[in-house]
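re: ur msg from earlier - yeah i can do the fe (ii) ion complex, just paste it... oh wait u already did. ok heres what im feeding in:
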Amino acid sequence: MTGISFYLLTDTHYFEPSLGASGKGYDEYMKGEQMCLAENSAILKATFAKIAEDENTDFVIIPGDLTKNGEKESHKGLLRELYKLRDKGKKIYVITARHDFNDTPRGYKNDGFVPVEGTKRRELSELYKDFGYETAIAFDERTLSYVSQLNRDVRLLAINCDGETDRERGSIDGRLMEWIKEQARAAKKDGCFMFAINHYPVIPPIPVFSLVGDAKLKNWKETAETLPDLGINLIFTGHMHIQSVNEYKNKNGRTLYDICTSALVGSPAVYRRVSISQEGKVSINTLSVPDFEWDLNGLTARQYFDKRFFSMIQHRINKALSGKGVKAIGRRIFNSITLKCLGRLLFIKVPKPLKKQRLADFASEIGISIFAGDMPYTEGTPKGDLIRKTLKRLCPVIRFVERKLSKDNEPLDLTQMLLSSVGKTGNYSDNHTVINLKEEKHGYNHC
Ligand SMILES: [Fe+2]
Ligand SMILES: [Fe+2]
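and the outut:
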């Protein structure tokens, strides 16, 4: 098989600056937003400039949420940048997702919001015709999914499962799966290796996300069982703005690897360079968004993105605790107590270096770490052990929540789920890893 390398970036959520990104309305909205909005165009330009410098990598793949919210001007602005990158020799493949069509998007001007022109879903394949659709060797008009021949031996299966209605959104329905099977059979017959992209993660990026409806495909298990049997072992996803690399072994012993990538414009603000060698070795590396033209107030780009994420988490928790009674007490505790106080309340010994840290800051730090991948709070680390002891003390509350959440009497180990969501387990790093597809029983070996 001829090897291939490509850049994978996702959830660009491009927002055209001329639509307005300032004023009181904007500031209020941004309190609860993870992504940078005003800075978005500068971030994209800097990243594309960096990608253009790499003469050894011809392909760029973007699995959805291309614009902030389907603003027509944002699509036009993004397309301008995509054409510039294409003119520098890159072949670009995109799929669209829920944030790319909308009847009522808005800009932020005059201390409030202003309505701006939106985009219909049916317009998207024409808008992005030069970025996958026109050269596709197969196209499913109903879902906007397509297949592209990237080189002599490699095909991209671009799955789109973000339809107009709730029912059509976030699941691969029977008709789409039949179309996928047909494409997988054709790839096999032609001796081509096929990998996939899809906006929604197939495997929940972290264990607790299996409890969150929108965090993965609705029919994720069924899909993860089927794809490897079709010879599709590798899928690149986005949507949850998180770095994760997960594997799922199906009943026939075949594996699906799901590489989910963070949003380009929000902490950790990264993209990936992926290369698949002739021998089926998949090398995945993560790169940070380069310095971009913006006043960062003396911070590095990463500190700037983290600061936004940090304040967003605190704002959202405070909002969830807004109100009187128990919520007000919870809000006061969250914002004022240190880990030392928390230890006293729960009869836990807190290591000295952690005593002065505010609970609110620790919670935000955990949030940022989860989304950056390779979560560090494992057993044996001071913070990891503190989380373990805290969850043990909160056992009665956790048991209560488990009873509420468990469906059809399926046992649920929430403690274990939480622990493996904050402390990385598994065989693969979320940021820099190598996957060997040659060991697969199906898929790569048929090339
Ligand atoms: Fe997104
Ligand atoms: Fe999304």
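cool cool. The first helix runs from residue 24 to 30. ping me if u need the other ligands too
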